[in-house]
Structures are given as structure tokens and as C-alpha cells.
Amino acid sequence: MRPAIGARITAVLLLTLGTFSPDRSGSFADTAKLQIGFEGDPVSYTVAAFERGRVLYVSVEEFADALGFASYVNARNGKAVLRIGSRSVKISPYNPFVMIDDAVVHMALPTTSMKGRLYVPLAHFLDALGGSFPYRPSLQQERRVLLLSKVRRNITDFDAEAKGNGVVIRLHTTRRFSPSDIAVSVQQGWLHMTLYGGVLDTVQMASEGITGIFRRMVSYQFDKSAQISFLFDKEIIDRQVSADANGVTLSVWSSEKTGRSAAAVPDAVRSRWLIDTIIIDPGHGGRDPGTIGRSGTKEKDINLEIGLRLRDLLKAALPRTRVLMTRSTDVFVGLKERGQFANAQGGKLFISIHANANASRNARGYSTYFLGVGKSQQAIEVARRENSVIQYEEAPEAYQEYQDFDYILNAIALSSYLKESQQLAELVNQNLGRRTKIPNQGVHQMGLLVLIGASMPGILVETAFMSNAHEERLLRTRSFQQSVAEALCESIQNFKKKSEEEIG
Ligand SMILES: [Zn+2]
């Protein structure tokens, strides 16, 4: 853990914030500029930017100049190459793919071009750069300010060596991790190592990953921890961790026989793009009413109404696609059963429909969620409420493991659908905005149990607030229910089209 450094960076950012606020009302709307500031540096830089929908785009060239990255733009085809440290980053106009060295990274939205200049959707671009970006970004979109603080990586690289009946993995670190900072778990052939306080370069880790010793290796950078996961061919029978000032050593012993569960991990990269089965999941039902509005409206009824409308729209729009529901009547279905049903049916997309509630009667608007470590208070609130459904289940103790933070981290590591889920969540967010005209409460990541269970791109939608008198009335109207269903249907169609184009 590095509480001291973390706290210091936050403090500096908060202090510096004031100096980048030329207009307290936050009305940067017409200036079409983004200000970039660096931690501890009083000078800020202004780069060309514009907002479309709710997405902020910045000029690639000016962004590179402000950050001191060398850049080259091909005037003929509009493509740009940035040098970021030792990496080359290639960006093309109207394209959602970014090449980082040899790796293709997918952004949730494509780049665009204006007056012959290349623009990237900034938040998605920074996500795509991930560990290759040498700063920790903090984007204040409403004020059009990007604050950057230097990343201090403390996990630099790793190596692995096969030994008789096992493997020795060594992470090279610039600090000592205490045993209590390191969590190791084994799940379905994967070995996950979480280092609290760890900071790593996910792109570099990936490029060093395949050594012939593991089937796959992935790494994740979270707010307060780094996670590295290895998929083994052989069954893991034991492991041991030790750490010193220069690194962490993980010894893994495996059995001679091939791991049964590891072999069962499907290698369905191609078919996963083909969205041939869609699962609609109306939240709650039966003895679990969900949220109850002040006029007595039950969330379960609204969720089902919207779900049925969505099913009809999808069947009409996509006649060759299977559209299935986890429930189509007022019955109770457990959270795990919903995921199991979706998996058993070969679902390729999972959409869970809910309505929100808040202690404040003024809270309004829609929001979308995909699997991740929740950061915002709003997302934590939603997870607490939507996950509490397990109290209605016959064996709530079956969810004990889900309460464990590690378990959620592992589930996220195992999910190879985060990018797609984020893309779908953003599409739904945009389309709900256009069709419903209620406030946008954003796209969030959260450890939602119903999403952990479904092995496919999945999102949860909170359509509006039952606790707000105006929105409770809206939720009861056929026109609002239909608008939500249309927004969802349109988003799914867009998502399906995009995903299937990528197969080529
Ligand atoms: Zn709900």
C-alpha cells in the first residue's frame, strides 16, 4: 500500500484545480478547447476540442504537442502516428481501432475528422492507451480540463521459468510488497495474483506474456491494485509466494495431467462476435418486488413491461436472432439462475432492466452499468440495492463468495467482454438520452452480481427513478416504456452491426 503517495497526489490535484477554472459556472461550451495541466506545473496548455453528444473529442496533433510526444500526420490519408516513450501509436480517421506497436486496441467509439484534422474521443483514447500512457489522467469533462500526474510504476516486468513439475514466476518490482499486499487465488485453471498498491504497464506485460509456459496471461490496473492472471494448461496443485525488495516470486506446482477446467475454457473468439442470441433480463419478480414507488408502483412490473416491449421490437427488427427472456411473467428468478440460463442458451448479449431509487426524492435520470470495480458513490448505491435481491433467495449463503472483493476482481479478470460491455453501455446511454429526454446519470462500472454470472457482454440499465414523483409517473406510461424499449432495441442493433462488421 502506498497511502502516503496516493494522498499526496490527490492533494496536489485538488489544489491545482482552482487555477484551471476560468469560469466557475463551467460554461466552456462555446470555446471548443481543452485545457491540459500537469501536476506541480503552473503552466497549462490549450488544445482544439469539441463535444458531440456527450463525447469530448480532441485534436490528435495538438494533444501530442501539448504532451511533448513526437507526431507525424500523413496528409494524404489522414492517419497519425504518435511516439509515446518507446511505443508507436497509430490512429486512423473514422476508425475505432488504435495500434499500439503490434497490438490492436479497440475504442468504444471511432475517431473522427474535422477540417482535415484527426480527432480522438479523449476518454476512450486514454483508456485504449492504458498503461502506455505515462500519466494518470483525470478528465473533468464539464470544465474541459484534463489534469495529468506522473505514473510511478512499481511493477516493471516479469519472467517465468519452467521447472520439472511447475513454474517459477518472478515479478520485478521497485519496492517491497509485504505478504499482506499480495493475494493469490486459483479458479478454473487461472491463477490470479493481486498486488495492493501495485502499478504496472498492462501493454508491456501483455507483450511479454506468452512464453509457452502459460496458455494466456492478462494484467489489469485498478485504482488501488494491479492484477496479473495466468491461464495454465496443467492443473495447479499448490503455490507459494515470497517477496523481497526487488520482486515477488511465485512458485506454482502442477500435476502431470492436463487441467480439466483449463481445457474447458472455450476458445470462441470468432463466434463470440456473432450476436445470434440476445437475453433480456427484467429485474426482480414474484416475491421480490424491487423498488416500490410512493404511489405504489412496483419496479418488477415496470421492468417486465419494458422487457416485453423490447422483446417484440427485437423480434421484428432482427427476425433471424433468438430473443429470450429470463422471465416473461411475474415470477421469482434468482440472480445466479439468470446468468446460468443466459449461458446455457448460448447468449451473446445480456441486458438487465431495472429502475432506480434514492433517499433523495430529487434524484432523477437514467444510468447504465457494466462489470467492474465500482468507483462512484452512485454505482455503489446501485450495487448495494440490486445485489440485495439475494435476501429473497432460498440459499443466500451461496452468494457468500460474492461478498469478497477478491472474488469480484477475479470475476472481472475472467471476463473477456469488458470492452464490448462498455461499448454497449455507452450506446444505450446515448440512445436513452435522445429518446427519453430525462437527465443522463452516466455510464458506470460496478460489481453487479447478475452481470458476473453471465459470460457474455452484458449491461444493467437503470431506466429512471421510482423515488422521484415525476419519473414514477413517467415509468407507468406506455409512451415512456416504449421509448426506453426503442432506445434499447436501437442500441442492440447498432452493437450487433458493429460487432459483426469486425469479423470481416
Ligand atoms: Zn432493480
Protein model, in words:
This protein has 504 residues and is α+β, with helices and mostly antiparallel strands. The protein has three domains: 148 residues, Copper amine oxidase-like, N-terminal domain (Copper Amine Oxidase, Chain A, domain 1, 2-Layer Sandwich); 110 residues, Immunoglobulin-like (Sandwich), CATH 2.60.40.3500; 231 residues, Aminopeptidase, CATH 3.40.630. The chain contains 13 helices and 26 strands. The longest helix has 24 residues. The N terminus is likely disordered. The structure holds zinc ion.
Feature tags:
504 residues, alpha+beta, Copper Amine Oxidase, Chain A, domain 1, Immunoglobulin-like, Aminopeptidase, 3 domains, 7-stranded mixed β-sheet, globular, binds zinc ion
Summarize the entry for a quick read.
This protein has 504 residues and is an alpha+beta fold. The protein has helices at 3-17, 60-67, 122-129, 202-207, 260-264, 299-317, 335-344, 377-387, 405-414, 418-436, 449-453, 469-476, 478-501; strands at 33-38, 44-52, 55-59, 70-73, 80-84, 87-91, 97-100, 103-106, 112-114, 117-121, 135-140, 145-150, 155-163, 166-173, 182-187, 190-196, 216-221, 225-231, 234-244, 247-258, 277-282, 322-325, 349-356, 366-371, 440-446, 458-465.
